[in-house]
């Protein structure tokens, strides 16, 4: 199955869902089906659409543009607030009461390469070439202080992701060097991946800078990833400082999509943020290679750290909200024998209505 076929199926599902929603038919009872997913989205419902782009090249990472390791990621998400997701607010609450819920859908694509992309031979001491095309569904719940996110992704790793063509076609268009080792990429493998995440929002004392009173928040979080792509546990925290902070749980990332549970924040605002996190890794498919076939691979480091810093700005007007954030993320060595740490830039743009 090529990426064009996958994209066509996704577009057919989305378009049929929109048409069903506009018919105004009532959702069925019981466990949600594809029909109840789509019928719950009508043209008057609150929704948010977010586009994520991460890249280690010169556009997003001006300080050191180079294709190396995690070299590009793109995703688009659509979130809304259907009635069926209310059941998630009451499941395994761990002593919490949740009064805000949301559901969302994600389609994404990731590209990984070794350091020496000019070499056509197999580089046994570097991470392998890999592409990943995936789609997923997630549910969210929140109260004033706590936020939960559960997500299930189904994807394909390997040539069917079309990562080789995407990277080299873009390089040809931009007159950049070709990545010559894609013949050594991981083989096709269907994947399933689950993420469970909890965040807490802690209000801190405002501070005054040049006669401006700025709010600040600390947002700790924990995550469990279980599946055929990643298996790890992680913990970290985001600190942000700014004016008119939005009702969410920090800026979203491709690997940690933003909360769609909060209410609108009037007017304009912005903030700067720093995130520090670490994870204990048991499995990383993109490093260790295919699960059921012989393939290139390296040994993953057990402990990996990240530092992210960025800025975000938003504007709310007559029910519409526009938000953008830019950041850079620095990642410690991820596999045995890696020469130096990695970094990539990220740009996210979000449009919401009715939130």
Characterize the structure shown:
There is one protein chain. The chain is mostly beta strands and 355 residues long. The chain has a single domain, classed as Lipocalin (Beta Barrel), CATH 2.40.128.140. It is 13% helix and 47% strand. It contains five helices and 13 strands. A hairpin with a 2-residue loop joins strand 8 and strand 9. The radius of gyration is 21 Å and the shape is globular. The N terminus is likely disordered.
Concise synopsis of the structure shown:
With 355 residues, the protein is mainly beta. It has helices at 3-22, 34-39, 86-89, 163-173, 285-288; strands spanning 47-55, 69-80, 100-113, 130-142, 146-157, 189-200, 202-209, 212-227, 230-243, 267-284, 303-317, 320-331, 342-353.
Supply the number of helical segments.
5
Which stretches are poorly predicted, pLDDT < 50 over at least 5 residues?
A: 1-29
**Rg over CA atoms:** 21 Å
Second rung of CATH, namely the architecture:
Beta Barrel
Q: What is the average of the pLDDT values?
A: 87
Number of domains in the coordinates?
Answer: 1
Largest sheet: 12 strands, antiparallel, barrel
Under CATH, the homologous superfamily reads Outer membrane protein
Q: How is the quaternary structure best described?
A: single chain
CATH fold descriptor: Lipocalin
Could you give the count of β-strands?
Answer: 13
User: Which geometry do the CA atoms define?
Assistant: globular
| CATH hierarchy, class | Mainly Beta
Strand order of the largest sheet: 1-2-3-4-5-6-8-9-10-11-12-13
Structural class computed from helices and strand pairing: mainly beta
The portion of residues forming beta strands comes to over 45%
Distance from first to last alpha carbon? 37 Å
Helix content: 10-25%
Secondary-structure element string: HHEEHEEEHEEEEEHEEE
């Amino acid at each position: 199955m090529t990426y064009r076929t996958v994209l066509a199926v996704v577009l057919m599902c989305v378009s049929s869902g929109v048409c069903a929603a506009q018919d105004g038919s009532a959702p069925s009872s019981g466990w949600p089906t594809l029909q109840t997913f789509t019928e719950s989205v009508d043209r008057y419902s609150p929704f948010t659409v977010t586009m994520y782009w991460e890249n280690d090249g010169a556009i997003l990472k001006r300080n050191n543009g180079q294709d190396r390791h995690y070299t590009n990621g793109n995703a688009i998400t659509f979130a809304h607030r259907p009635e069926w997701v209310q059941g998630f607010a009451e499941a395994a609450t761990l002593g919490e009461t949740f009064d805000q819920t949301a559901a969302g859908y994600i389609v994404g694509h990731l590209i990984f390469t070794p350091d020496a992309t000019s070499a056509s031979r197999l580089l046994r001491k570097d991470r392998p070439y890999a592409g990943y095309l995936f789609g997923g569904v997630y549910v969210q719940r929140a109260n004033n202080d706590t936020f939960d996110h559960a997500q299930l992704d189904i994807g394909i790793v390997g040539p069917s992701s079309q990562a080789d063509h995407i990277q080299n076609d873009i390089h040809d268009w931009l007159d950049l060097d070709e990545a010559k080792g894609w013949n050594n990429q991981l083989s096709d493998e269907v994947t399933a991946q689950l993420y469970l995440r909890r965040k807490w929002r802690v209000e801190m004392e405002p501070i005054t800078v040049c006669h401006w009173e700025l709010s600040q928040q600390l947002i700790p979080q924990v995550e469990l990833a279980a599946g055929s792509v990643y298996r790890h546990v992680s913990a970290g925290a985001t600190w942000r400082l700014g004016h008119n902070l939005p009702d969410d749980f920090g800026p979203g990332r491709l690997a940690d999509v933003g909360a769609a549970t909060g209410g609108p924040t009037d007017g304009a605002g912005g903030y700067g943020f720093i995130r520090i996190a670490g994870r204990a890794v048991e499995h990383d498919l993109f490093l260790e290679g295919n699960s059921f076939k012989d393939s290139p691979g390296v040994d993953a480091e057990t402990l990996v750290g990240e530092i992210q810093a960025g800025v975000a700005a938003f504007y709310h007007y007559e029910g519409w909200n526009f938000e953008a954030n830019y950041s850079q993320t620095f990642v410690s060595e991820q596999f045995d024998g890696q020469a130096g740490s990695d970094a990539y830039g990220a740009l996210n743009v979000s449009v919401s209505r009715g939130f």
